[in-house]
Write a structure and sequence with these properties.
It is a single chain. Helix content is about 65%, strand content about 0%. It is mainly alpha-helical and about 80 residues long. Helix 3 runs parallel beside helix 4.
């Protein structure tokens, strides 16, 4: 899915594998099953924090304002 690699850090906030790679998909499922609920929740919290950091409305607006200010743009 487009954008997934921006928010899923393989082995840290989730698992990534090439589309159609059944062996890699199976390995990812096995790793998720072996991780346990506490580990999965920790990864989920870390993933949520990453999305908030990079893609929340405030974060995106801040990034745009910084980009425009570096370009010498003016508001209004």
């Amino acid at each position: 899915v487009s954008g997934t690699e921006d928010f899923v850090i393989d082995g840290r906030t989730g698992w990534l594998f090439e589309p159609g790679n059944v062996d890699a998909f199976s390995a990812s499922l096995a790793q998720a099953a072996a991780a346990g609920i506490d580990e999965l929740r920790r990864r989920g919290r870390e993933a949520r924090a990453l999305v908030d950091e990079r893609a929340s409305i405030k974060s995106v607006v801040d990034q745009l304002e910084l980009t425009y200010s570096r370009m010498g743009g003016r508001r209004g």
